[in-house]
């Protein structure tokens, strides 16, 4: 069985980060180890204020040392929301320890959305995250995170040549295959784009642009993409599965908008994900 370790926070309520990555990667038939980077009472996104935040940075070196003694190996190391610059530096050391010839590193540089940083993040943190991205095989930012990492204005409107240009610039950070989520040229279709800087190939995948903004979709996409790559799918196939499942989840959430304002109704669609990955 393949094995992934995912490193991100537990938002106890709100459906994102570990409470999304763990069930999704497990459902894809992959053993999922975790390193929780922080415990929050809820996520920090729209709708919640006054959340608790316990930083677990101090626990990470001990976990890493214990795992080294156990000689644990992972087919992928996948990071999401990280809570501080110090934590990013410690995870960078974890990459050095657990990177092998055969495994892949996936960094979702969680920084913000809608042109704005999430609470507590700023340009200095984005610079640190960029250094982590340099060590990754795949990075999975949204357009907001692209703008913060490249130091360019947040683009509301853009075309395919813009997307190709920023993908090339993301690869210059040092990662072989950047992936951008939430790509849309109009209000009909949305999806993702990727660039394999080794072969020079671009990849695109689009589905319906459901008119519904919801929290946690980036974590869903990154978890599915990571799982699909670990299950041996091509970049194109991994994009297709991740876009299709993410849009399924948004559609399911839009149908239950009243009770599901804080997260994405991904559980309702998990059977489809199992179908897609085994197809
Ligand atoms: O979904 C990304 C995410 C993860 N973890 C926490 C967050 C967010 C986005 O707001 O606040 C704690």
Present as ligands are:
3-hydroxy-5-(hydroxymethyl)-2-methylisonicotinaldehyde
- Order of strands side by side in the largest beta sheet? 3-2-1-4-5-8-9-10-11
The rounded distance between the terminal residues' Cα atoms is 18 Å
Secondary structure: helix percent: 25-40%
Rough outline: globular
Number of helices: 9
Strand content: 15-25%
Mean pLDDT: 97
**pLDDT < 50 runs, ≥5 residues:** none
CATH architecture: 3-Layer(aba) Sandwich
Q: Main sheet, how many strands, which sense, barrel?
A: 9 strands, mixed
Description of the structure:
With 279 residues, this protein is α/β, with parallel strands linked by helices. It has one domain: UDP-N-acetylmuramoyl-L-alanine:D-glutamate ligase (3-Layer(aba) Sandwich). The protein is built from 9 helices and 11 strands. The chain has a 9-stranded mixed beta sheet with strand order 3-2-1-4-5-8-9-10-11, with helices on both faces. Strands 6-7 form a two-stranded antiparallel ribbon. β9 and β10 form a beta hairpin. It is globular. The model has no long low-confidence stretch (mean pLDDT 97). The structure holds 3-hydroxy-5-(hydroxymethyl)-2-methylisonicotinaldehyde.
């Amino acid at each position: 069985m393949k094995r992934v370790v995912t490193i991100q926070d537990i938002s106890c309520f709100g459906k994102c980060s570990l409470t999304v990555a763990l069930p999704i990667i497990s459902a894809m038939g992959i053993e999922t180890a975790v390193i929780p980077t922080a415990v929050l009472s809820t996520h920090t996104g729209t709708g919640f204020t006054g959340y608790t935040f316990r930083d677990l940075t101090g626990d990470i070196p001990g976990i890493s040392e214990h795992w080294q003694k156990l000689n644990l190996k992972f087919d992928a190391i996948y990071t999401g929301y990280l809570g501080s610059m110090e934590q990013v530096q410690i995870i960078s050391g974890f990459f050095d320890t657990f990177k092998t010839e055969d495994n892949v590193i996936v960094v979702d540089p969680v920084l913000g959305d809608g042109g704005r940083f999430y609470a507590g993040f700023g340009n200095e943190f984005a610079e640190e995250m960029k250094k982590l991205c340099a060590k990754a095989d795949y990075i999975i930012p949204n357009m907001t995170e692209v703008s913060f990492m490249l130091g360019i204005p947040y683009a509301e409107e853009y075309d395919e040549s813009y997307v190709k240009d920023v993908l090339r610039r993301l690869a210059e950070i040092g990662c072989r295959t950047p992936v951008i989520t939430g790509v849309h040229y109009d209000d009909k279709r949305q999806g993702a784009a990727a660039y394999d800087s080794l072969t020079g190939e671009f990849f695109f995948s689009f589905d319906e642009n459901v008119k519904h903004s919801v929290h946690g979709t980036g974590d869903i996409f990154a978890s599915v993409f990571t799982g699909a790559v670990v299950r041996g799918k091509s970049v194109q196939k991994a994009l297709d599965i991740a876009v299709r499942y993410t849009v399924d989840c948004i559609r399911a959430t839009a149908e239950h908008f009243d009770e599901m304002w804080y997260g994405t109704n991904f559980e309702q669609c998990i059977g489809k994900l199992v179908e897609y990955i085994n197809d």
